[in-house]
Design goal:
This protein has about 190 residues and is mainly α. The protein has seven helices and two strands; from the N terminus they run H-H-E-E-H-H-H-H-H. The protein has a two-stranded antiparallel sheet with strand order 1-2. Strand 1 (about 50) and strand 2 (about 55-60) form a beta hairpin.
Length: about 190
């Protein structure tokens, strides 16, 4: 084994961190996280009690069941974004709609905190696209693109001819502007 070898001597935390990074990169991770984080305050606040000394404020409303359903659905949509990223657009649109519905139903969308997090998560999910796979090295038979006016190097061309130069075509833009009176055709 050489000193540069990174095989068996890696710490298990390093291996787990790299595995998590790979898993996170293959799916809309942050969209799911924000959507789940938005569902928690929407579901929690209607059932929470605030204690101020000896006074207890109950924030429960008549729409407690609706808030709980919206919050649970947002958490479920966040998990769906993580584990079934193929339906990310549907999950993102559904998260945005549930966030908007939470404004009148769930204490102003979990006191705006849950609303904003769910809205951001839904938008991230809709806009996320899987990465392009890395292209493998080109074959030797593949054509090399040639720019106009640039000489073609001998190593890029097969040995069946000399180096070629393609002339550039000169365009005189000043004459065209003067011919049109300085205006384009629409004006």
């Amino acid at each position: 084994m050489s000193p540069e070898s990174t095989g068996q001597n890696e710490h298990y935390l390093t291996v787990m961190r790299r595995g998590f990074r790979t898993w996170r990169g293959d799916r809309p991770f942050w969209a799911g996280l924000f959507t789940m984080a938005g569902g928690l305050p929407i579901a929690y606040f209607p059932y929470a009690n605030l204690h101020l000394g000896n006074v207890t404020l109950a924030m429960s409303t008549t729409a407690g069941a609706g808030s709980l359903i919206i919050g649970v659905l947002l958490v479920t949509l966040g998990l769906t974004m993580w584990f079934h990223s193929i339906v990310r657009v549907f999950a993102g649109v559904a998260a945005i709609l549930l966030a908007l519905i939470s404004i009148p139903v769930a204490n102003i969308g979990g006191f705006v905190i849950g609303f904003l997090l769910a809205l951001l998560g839904g938008a991230l999910s809709v806009s996320w696209a899987p990465g392009e796979p890395v292209a493998e090295e080109a074959d030797d038979e593949e054509q090399v693109p040639v720019t106009v006016g640039a000489p073609v190097a001998a190593q890029d061309v097969p040995d069946d001819g000399p180096t070629q130069t393609f002339p550039q075509q000169a365009v005189d833009f000043d004459k065209q502007v003067q011919a049109d009176g300085g205006r384009h055709r629409a004006g």
